[in-house]
Amino acid sequence: MPILIWVQLAYLDESKTARAYYITALVVADTDCVGLGRALDEVVEWASDTYGRVSERAELHAVDLAGGRGDWARWRAPIYIPARVAVYERAVAAIAGFDVRAYIRGADIDTHHQRYAVGTDIHGTVLPWVLERVQNDAAYRDDLVLAIADEHQLRERYRGAMREFQRSGTSGWKPEVLDRIADTLHFAPSHSSRLLQAADLVSYAHTQTKRRHVDSRAEAAYARIWGVLAPVIKEASCWYGP
Q1: Is-above-0.70 flag for pTM?
Q2: pLDDT mean over 10-29
Q3: How far apart, in whole angstroms, are the C-alpha atoms of residue 93 and residue 39?
Q4: At the N or C end, where does the chain have fewer CB atoms within 10 A?
Q5: Is pLDDT at 5 greater than 70 in this prediction?
Q6: How confident is the model at residue 1 (pLDDT cuts 50, 70, 90)?
Q7: Residue 197 domain-assigned?
Q8: CA dihedral defined by 74, 75, 79, 85, rounded to 10 degrees?
Q9: Is residue 228 predicted with pLDDT exceeding 80?
Q10: Is 1 inside any structural domain?
């Protein structure tokens, strides 16, 4: 009888606050990838059917959804704020209903500037930290994982770094050989991937919990959204230096 090895998929998205830079990895069971994508399609279809003025192909891009921009520009008026919040809440409820795990690693921007040479790429610093969590997640489940990230202008640099992580390991105080991450680091446009959009929604919700909102209703909305996501957040940490 052949031995079956499942392949998880890890979707990566970056975000930042005034103080820190983060990368989120949303690890999705292979058996749930299609279902989650369809569930998010249904969220947008529901938005279109319920409120109108949005395409059923609209991207669930968190910044645009929150601010009424991009595909959600026709919902920019204040009257649509409750609708935008409802879509965000419905989307994260869909995400939390599947077998997903989120790992969020970050670095304090000022500390990073002090610790590393001028011009050092903070994304490149944080990337192996979150990939180590993806590696450990896959090892715990005796799985392999494919890593897919949002498009990035330095993608060739990060693909090269991934090869080194797989062959020689990451650096730092607890290096890891990323032998559970298969192939290379893949890049895709978020507008074509509901699962990259899912990672973006998680990533943005996290950074909003780090901000002080003038409007108490916004504060409450992001608290609710983060509360729904809490069961799938396996780590949300930031490096502030030694």
Answers
A1: yes
A2: 96
A3: 10
A4: N
A5: no
A6: low
A7: yes
A8: 180
A9: yes
A10: no
Lowest-confidence segment of 25-34, 92-101, 116-125, 158-167 by average pLDDT: 116-125
Residue 86 tokens read as 């409802």
Q: How confident is the model at residue 231 (pLDDT cuts 50, 70, 90)?
A: very high
| Predicted local distance difference test score (pLDDT) of residue 212 | 80
C-alpha dist (Å) from residue 218 to 67, 204, 205, 221: 11, 13, 11, 5
**Three-class DSSP labels, the chain:** CCCCCCEEEEEEEEEECCCEEEEEEEEECHHHHHHHHHHHHHHHHHHHHHHCCCCCCCCCCHHHHHHCCHHHHHHCCHHHHHHHHHHHHHHHHHHHCCCEEEEEEEEEHHHHHHHCCCCCCHHHHHHHHHHHHHHHHHHHCCCEEEEEEECCCCHHHHHHHHHHHHHCCCCCCCCCCCCCEEEEEEEECHHHCHHHHHHHHHHHHHHHHCCCCCCHHHHHHHHHHHHHHHHHEEEEEEECCC
| Separation of first and last alpha carbons in the chain | 51
Q: How many C-beta neighbours within 10 Å does residue 97 have?
A: 14
- Quote the number of domains for the chain: 1
In a domain, 241, yes or no: no
pLDDT at residue 119 in the model = 83
242 assigned to some structural domain = no
Beta bridge partners of 106: 22, 238
Q: What CATH number does residue 133 fall under?
A: 3.30.420
Q: Are 209 and 203 in contact (CB under 8 A)?
A: no
β-pairing, 233-239 vs 100-108, is parallel
